[in-house]
Sequence to fold (76 residues):
Amino acid sequence: MEKNADIHIGKIIKTTLDARGQSYSWLARQINTDVSNVPKILKRGSLNTDMLFRISLAMKVEFFAYYSEQYRKKNK
Fold:
């Protein structure tokens, strides 16, 4: 399976956090993880669906939409 180099979901989440002024500790509390895990999550180019779903719910952002958009672009 081809790796999707066009999307770095960790960077997208970090950009969203920064734009909202939300801290790593806020996100850690929302997704029930230690604050030391947040930078590790944000460095990842991809996340498992469970983690991405938890972050999407916490931040009220449909991060899966980035993949849907990429899918549509590649399948025109």
Remarks:
- Residues 9-20 form the longest helix (12 residues).
- Residues 15 and 42 are 10 Å apart (CA to CA).
- DSSP finds five helices and no strands in the chain.
- The two ends are 19 Å apart (CA to CA).
